[in-house]
Amino acid sequence: MRIMAVVVLYHTLPVNSRSFQSLQNASRQLPPGSLSLRVMLYDNTPGGQKPGELPADVIYQADPQNGGTAAAYNHAMEVAVREGIAWLLVLDQDSGLPVDFFRKLCPALLFAAQLDTVAAVVPCIACGDGRITSPWQKRNYGLRPRRLPVGFIGIPPQAVYAANSACTFKVSALKAMNGFDPRFPLWSSDLFMFHRLHQNHFRLLVAGHIHVEHEASILDLQARSTPARYEDMLLAEEAFYDQCLGRRGHLMLLAILLHRLLYKLWTTHGSVRHFQMVARFFLRGLFRTRRHRMRDWEESARRRNPAIAGNSLS
């Protein structure tokens, strides 16, 4: 079995990347020759950095312009296509893979490879205090997502969403979607990709017996997210709900923003700036039309990446 694994770095050296180190540890637990693992480090550090000494078989790709995770995943996808690799494991820099990750993942991939409709295998993601954050299903009504049963293994018929990191995508399915959308370089790229997969009748194999640790930045805003990054997240989130979920989705987003103002920001150590931004986006949702909100998003996307100037989200 051949897998391409891409680890996205940002102001972090490979030796300090939890994902890269745990990836190497997990790969050593398999018998020699049982898995062909191609590893790529995609470094989004602005201006670049010296990565230090790396194993000879690791690909290092620097992107000093910081194209985001979407650029990293798409680059790795194209390399996988050229080399005939069927699976792409995507990782940000601080996910902790268990040592038995590949021992449990490989049978799941062998099963999923037989099913044309399965586009990815997604593990269970938990933060440091044990809370399960991925995967989930959206409720028609209600603020909290529907969590799958602990340890669930299977292919739900309903749409399932997951955090990108530690997901293993079928390269042919990603290629059919033309890869990750560069207009969502970081925030909501997972929401948008999984929405597109489900719209095209793909499903996910949930591997609830694989547990990966990951600390999401939105769970501690003071320590892990600057106001500028949080504003980018709000803008991308708004664009996803406006484009993909219609009027009902827009009403749901307004409820989510109100919930953050009244409760969530207090529990995630939000600053005054965070509160001000959420309030501004809540008022935007009330008093600006979808067309104006989408225009703001398109202009922001073009500023980040002039190459997408010809595309439109509307």
Describe the structure in brief.
With 314 residues, this protein is an alpha/beta fold.
Question: Could you explain the architecture of this structure?
Answer:
With 314 residues, this protein is α/β, with parallel strands linked by helices. It has 2 domains: 214 residues, Alpha-Beta Complex (Spore Coat Polysaccharide Biosynthesis Protein SpsA, Chain A); 88 residues, no CATH class. The strands form 2 sheets. Strands 1, 2, 3, 4, 5, 6, 7, 10, 11 and 12 form a 10-stranded mixed β-sheet that branches. A two-stranded antiparallel ribbon has the order 8-9. β8 and β9 form a beta hairpin. It is globular, with a radius of gyration of 19 Å. The N and C termini lie far apart (40 Å).
| CATH fold assignment of the largest domain | Spore Coat Polysaccharide Biosynthesis Protein SpsA, Chain A
Catalogue the unreliable spans: none
Whole-number mean pLDDT: 90
What is the β-strand count? 12
Number of individual domains = 2
What's the overall geometry? globular
What are the defining features of this structure?
314 residues, alpha/beta, Spore Coat Polysaccharide Biosynthesis Protein SpsA, Chain A, ten-stranded mixed β-sheet, two-stranded antiparallel ribbon, 12 strands
